Amino acid sequence: QLDRGCALHTAARGGLSSVSSQDVPAQRPRAIFHTSESDPAKHTEQHEGRLYNIPLEEVKAVFPHGLPHRFQQQIQTFNEARVMVRKPALEILAYLKGSNFAHPAVRYVIYGERGTGKTMTLCHVVHYCSRQGWLVLHVPDAHLWVKNCKELFQSSYNKDRLDQPLQASVWLKNFKTSNERFLQEIKTQKKYMWGKRESTEEGRPLREVVEQGLARVRSASDAVGVVLREIKQQSHRGSFRLLVAVDGVNALWGRTTLSKEDKSPVSPEELTLVHNLRKMVTNDWNGGAIVTTLSQTGSLFKPSSAYTPQELLGKEGFDALDPFVPIPVPNYSPREFESCYGYYLERKWLQHEKAHTEDGKAELQFLSGSNPRQLDRLAGPL
Amino acid sequence: RIMPVRWSRYNPSYLEPEAKKESYQKPLEELTEEEREHMELKAVRPIKAAPPSLSSSVFSDPMISKFTNMMMKSGNKVLARSLMSQTLEAIKRKQLEKYHKAPENEKETIECNPYVIFHQALKNCQPIIGLSNITKGGKTYQVPVPLTDNRKRFLAMKWLITECRENKHRRTLMPEKLSQELLLAFNNEGPVIKKKHILHKMAEANRAYAHFRWW
User: Per its record, what are the GO molecular function terms (chain A) (predicted)?
Assistant: First the structure.
């Protein structure tokens, strides 16, 4: 009871609910879990534990491929996208606001146990950067590039490497949706030959390279490589800021489940996509930042209890990413749990009669261990 | 050597385990005479082992556990329980989407609680009267017979599960099929309700043989 009282005072200062339905006075104690501040740049510690709304058109424009599947289902059911503002995200935003872009890009590695909200933190940061007008290079899950690949072709650019046309074309399509205006502004600085007859001249907008990759699926991986190279070379000029957001960065340095035609295993360096992405994640360029997430869920040949950078990246990956800023993401604090529980109640997601009681709430907290994913899974059937 | 406990016959002196939290939180003064005697008995008599399906959770429901057990194949309770939870979630999502799109005056009529829908659907599927085979004079007759509550519940659940397993497209997943069936049964439509009506009609048609029943 006391906690709600204090929270009401801060709410009076911080702005109340933005829910468009009528605010019946009995609902006021629940409405403090929302905040009407939908610009991540203005989020501070005052907003910690509250949920902010992202308009649905923005979701389609900024996140064509970044959000977790269950969150997308939730957006469709509730007809709104609400993201919780948490401490790790606020930390990264503070670092980004105060960083000097003349220095080499700083690497941030978000790590934590399974289901604590690393991908959602990354999405919060991506939303902030796209609102600020940065160029966002968002790789939704690097693990998708090292497993379950149906077609592997030998790269025409370099005989040792292997191409992945499907994954590359999917990524190019989503990249185009999220960064329309930058593709028009950035010009190529070199002439690129796609096979014997087609080429892209110097000074053409990057949009043409992307369209070339989408039209000729065979050369999609090379198109991706060209795009990454151009963006990296031009980022230090200062006309735009670059954010490299990679989810599941430990895939770049592990093993793959793919094999060549003679059944020999493929190591990640032999894939063009992984090779080019590794070059992006090194800190030899300036004018932006690199925010990455470790993920055990999609990883290959790693035990399920592994969550620290040392275990998941291995020696090679750790040396490649060193030095980085580690950002741990913990389970929900009691305040964040209250906020999430209140949101589910308000949206009528918790329908069971006993879920509205104190006993039910205590049971949910105990069973989920304040883990966001477990709470979501438990609240589903209730 | 493992001693089998659950399906062996307990000595009649063994008492049932009590799982509900409320019964242990009552102070001594509030108990009635029988409850005090029961407490004293529990101090002396041994207690049976608690079965794994007995839970002290406020969210546990005996009908749902029965249904999950019937859906289970070769002892895979984990899979059966996850399918059940996915079904309830699917029902909730469909109803919530309908709820948010409906105009204000219709919002109260839409039921969003998956447990209410489940219970109501089961009640709608339960037959009132059943048929049993009675052999008289060399011929077997289908005789209309009253059913016990347990038998009615069992038949309703069995029909729902067999309907979902057999008469649907091969590639659809069980939660999707089950949620669709439960929503249809909730509105008194669908193949299971039809089967119940056919059974009732058969019983009505065979009314003449009702006197063959001797119990």
Answer: structural constituent of ribosome
